[in-house]
Structures are given as C-alpha cells and as structure tokens.
Amino acid sequence: MRVAVQTRTSVTPAIIRELVAAKMPPAAFESWIAPLKISVFENTLNIIAQNQFSADFIKRTYLNILESVAGECGLFLFVGVGRATQTVDASVNDNAMAEFHLAKNSPASAGFDDFIVSEENSFAVSAAKKLASGAVNFSPLFIYGAPGSGKTLLANCIDSSTSARTLMMTGARFVSEFLRAINERSVFAFKDLCRNCDMFIMDDMQALAGKRACMDEFLSLLMDLIKDGTNVVLTANAAPGALGGFDRRMQSVFASGLVVDLALPSKAVRHTMLLRAGVPLDVADDLAPRVSANGHLIAGVAKKIAAYTELMGSGINAEIAGSLLADTLQKNKTPLSMVRAMCEKMGVSFDEVCSASRMRAVVRSRQIMMFALKSTTKLSLAEIGRLIGDRDHATVLYGIAQIERSRKTDLMLNAEIDQMIIECK
Fold first, then answer.
1. Looking at residues 82-103, what average pLDDT do you find?
2. What's the CA gap between 187 and 193, in Å, rounded?
3. This prediction's pTM
4. Does domain 112-262 have CATH number 3.40.50.170?
C-alpha cells in the first residue's frame, strides 16, 4: 500500500531533506535527521539510522513527518538500521509499516500471567502491576534479587503490559550506546532519546558500576526523568545501599522511590515452572526439590528434557531425568545464596549486613560470614568484601581474624559456625 497519491519525478535525497526540514524545528532536524542516510531506490524512500535506538526514536517521534514527505513524493517508506533496502514491493512494505511502532502486548512478549507469584514476591509483583497501569506516586521502582529470581522477566512484564511509550535497555547497553554517542559526537541525540518516553526501564543496572562518565550521565538522566514525572524501573542484583561501585548519593536516589526484593523460586514455584514448560507431572515432582532455585537453570532443565524427548523419540521418567541432569542437580550454592542463607540462620537481613550499621549483632554476623566465605570458597578477600556491602580488603581481613581468635576459646561459637557452614554451603 502506498503512502501517497502524488508522484514527483527525479526525487533526490537533497529534496527529501529539504521537505523534512521544512516540517520540523531546525534543532531537531540537525540532531536526528541530518545524520541519517537517505536514499531513493525503485519507488522506496530509505531512511537508515546508525543504530536501533535511533531508529526506534525516529519511528516513535517523526514517523508522521516522514510518511507525509514520502506521500508527497509518491514513494514507499522504509525506516531501518544498516544498509538501505534496495527492493521493496508493496506486500513487503505493508509488513515493514507494521513494525514502525514499538511492539506492545505481542504474543511473544511476557505478561504478568507468565510470572509465577509466590507469597514472598507478591508485594513486588503488585507494585509492578500498579506501575504498569500508570497509577502510581512512586518512582523509581527499584527491583533487586539474586540472579535467576525473575528481575528481567518482571521488567519485561511491565514493558509489555503498559500502554505508555517505553524505553527499555540493559545497563550494559546504556554503557555501549553512551560511549558510541561520545565517539560519534551525538551525545545530545542520545540524551533526547532517553528522555523522550513515558516510562524508562533499565535492567541489570549494576553494569554501570565503576564507569564514572556513564554513571554521571545516568544520574543526570534519572534526576530529569523523576522531575518530569516519568515512571522509572530499575533492576539490580543487590539493594541500593549494597550496590558496589556507586557512591552514596546515587544509592540514595535509587532508594528514593519504592525498593522491592525478589526471592528465588521456592519449591512450589519451581514445580509450577517445570509443569508449564511441559515437563511430565511425575518428573516435575521429583525434580522440583532437587533443582537449584534459579529461574535460568530451571528453564535450562526444561529445555534439556524437551530436547531429549524430541531427539530420542520417547517419553522421559524420573529415573532417566535424574541421570540426564546429574550435573545440574548438584546443590552447591553460589556465594551470594550462601550469604542470604546465613542471614536467615543468624536472624539478620541481607540489607543490614551490607549496610554501614555498626550494631554489635550486625557486625558480628558480618564477620562470621566473611570467615565462612573464606573457609568454603575460592573468593579473594576483595571479592568477599564486594559481596558484603563493598567492604575493603583490610576490613575483611580484620573480621576474619576476629572470628578465628574467638573460635580458639569459644567452643559453642565454634560448633555453631561449623554447623551453619554445613547447612548453608
């Protein structure tokens, strides 16, 4: 389907640029349209952006202007990334036109029905639903949890369930795009892109840690978004106060909205996840208590079972599944999950352990965890310090020495620590 009825002969990219420039502010044209590659080939106006973010922004913001210009010239319109399309017939162009707007609520997108809600995570999911509806008075929503707890899935649920214009990216993508913008001297265009949305979602924002220029730019962006009333969602692997590599000011801004944590999948949740993935009931019953509480790992287990069924042409039972997944069903915990388990055993919260608290009970618990990690893992003192509130090498060394000294004289403490290590490692 053509977007125009009039035909202009000998249309050139220069003419296209003049027509577009006449329909928009000069500053916007220089920032967004001038850097684009524009060509006309076989009745198609090709608009080629440098990267996907630029293409998405142009589609959302200036599509009506580009459609109008293409219509005046009697051309089809193609907006994309990379090399210009040289052959586009009417049917292909119809499909391309459907992709000009960011997809919302597509069948492939995750909805809240895809997130299995446990009692521990009900508050976080309720907050996410409220924010997706737009009826909130808190921003940012800061979601944190261990790897495999469902942070990315919940962020995708928000993205696909809201009617707002959403920009979602990972922390690593923000870093790469910002550095690209600096190299290409298009920082102002990048700033416009990040601010021209109704909802901004950053997943795995801990990737910004230690990258000073990127952190400064992100803090400026976050302050502007909050000031403008834009809903913001941030996900990370630790609470704001426990994020290593970020200064106190940034941590306080992250915590200025609503902070919620996601627990790792319980046995009941793991069982439901396996069933939803098509694992037979008896196999799910056997695997749920044995598979690690990690959403990524559970998905891998389900895929391996499905692959076995397809490749071998036969069903699977609990015995075969146990043999097939022998390497996966080990119960060794990650250092972070060990710390969380020890927090539960000692009756302190993970946030307290990672905070600057000097309460006697918290300090003692923190030192015991440092000793346990040094005794049972291959982590360096610096890595242990980063795991427990970004402590330095000297603090960890001092904490371990304190526990070693106490163990020599306090037999009860010695036994309690040994038992806790056995149960939590």
1. 35
2. 10
3. 0.59
4. no
